Amino acid sequence: AQSVTQLDSQVPVFEEAPVELRCNYSSSVSVYLFWYVQYPNQGLQLLLKYLSGSTLVKGINGFEAEFNKSQTSFHLRKPSVHISDTAEYFCAVTSRRDDKIIFGKGTRLHILP
Amino acid sequence: EAQVTQNPRYLITVTGKKLTVTCSQNMNHEYMSWYRQDPGLGLRQIYYSMNVEVTDKGDVPEGYKVSRKEKRNFPLILESPSPNQTSLYFCASSLLGPHGELFFGEGSRLTVL
Fold this sequence. Notes:
The structure holds two protein chains of two kinds.
Chain A: E1 3-6, E2 10-14, E3 19-21, E4 23-26, E5 31-38, E6 44-50, E7 56-58, E8 64-68, E9 73-78, E10 87-95, E11 102-103, E12 107-112
Parallel strand pairs in A: 2-12
Antiparallel strand pairs in A: 1-4, 3-9, 5-6, 5-10, 7-8, 8-9, 10-11, 10-12
Chain B: E1 4-7, E2 10-13, E3 19-25, E4 31-38, E5 42-51, E6 54-57, E7 65-66, E8 76-78, E9 87-94, E10 103-104, E11 108-112
């Protein structure tokens, strides 16, 4: 069975500072990994995904994530955050043989002025 | 405009009164799914559908039913709602199943008294 763990439920960071949101997964097969963002009072939207190929994945709004198979991680990073990045971020995992997708519990990103 | 539309957006009901939350997408996606979002628990998949007349249980299907008679519609049915089904519900669709980008509706906030 697959699972995903987001290690931080909340992350406060000052505006223009870098941020890393951590995600670890567990799976016995090759995985597909995603980061989704949920802005206040909205549905989720895709930030980026890893299916295969380059382990460094670039997404929208300046975010990127690195797939690390040995550490079973898919951490999300941004070099300089903006107040508009205030949102909840969800890591998710599935696999080629799977019709289900498993979401993490989410990390709330608080941008401090 | 490509979108996933859920109705109602907000609903307060009482225990045992059957209700249906509708979901419709205009992108000709084959894959559709329902999730509930609860504080501290993230998103959990309720049911999903790979195509018309094909539905399957997600991780938390108890107390819910779905049907997929047409490609564009995927209603969520609560035959006898209970207070523990008070939650924020999201419908999503995808062209490529869970491996592709999920497009989410804006959510339906349900309160069961």
